[in-house]
Amino acid sequence: MDERLERTKGLLQLAGVYRKKGNERLVGQTIQLIYEELLIDYLIQQTERVQELEKDNKRLKDLNSNNLPVMRSMHEKTERYKQTLEFYADESNHEYEVTYDMADVIESEVMKDYGNKAREALKGVEG
Questions:
Q1: In the prediction, which pLDDT does 102 show?
Q2: DSSP string computed for the chain
């Protein structure tokens, strides 16, 4: 970029010399040349930026596609945990009865479950 800057400065000085000599045609051509070089430099920068963004976009797409199965698995686990917690949180599942003579206990749904729903929901969970 320093070369372009030096070239632009040189061309501007040249345009000033042409102006002092009264040669407006060469001043115009020199200014046009500066404009074209600056435009080309800008287009090169924009093209390089597009290439960088396309690479970033591809990396993000790859990352997303790699994470999708993990995200699905996490969603499924979360849903199992939610259902299990809802079962244990439902107060009606804790209700039990004792027969009149206290000889038998009619177990609640939670008592009948003995934690099986929780163990099933936690299958495969490490730690």
A1: 67
A2: -HHHHHHHHHHHHHHHHHHHTT-HHHHHHHHHHHHHHHHHHHHHHHHHHHHHHHHHHHHHHHHHHHHHHHHHHHHHHHHHHHHHHHHHH-GGGG--EE-TTSS-EE--HHHHHTTHHHHHHTTT---
Residues 6+ apart with CB under 8 A from 80: 120, 121
Tokens of 15: 């345009």
Q: How far apart are CA 84 and CA 93, in angstroms?
A: 12
pTM: 0.46
Tell me the C-alpha distance between 2 and 5, whole Å. Answer: 5
Please report, for the chain, the start and end positions of each structural domain, with discontinuous segments joined by +: 2-121
Place of tokens 């994470």: 67
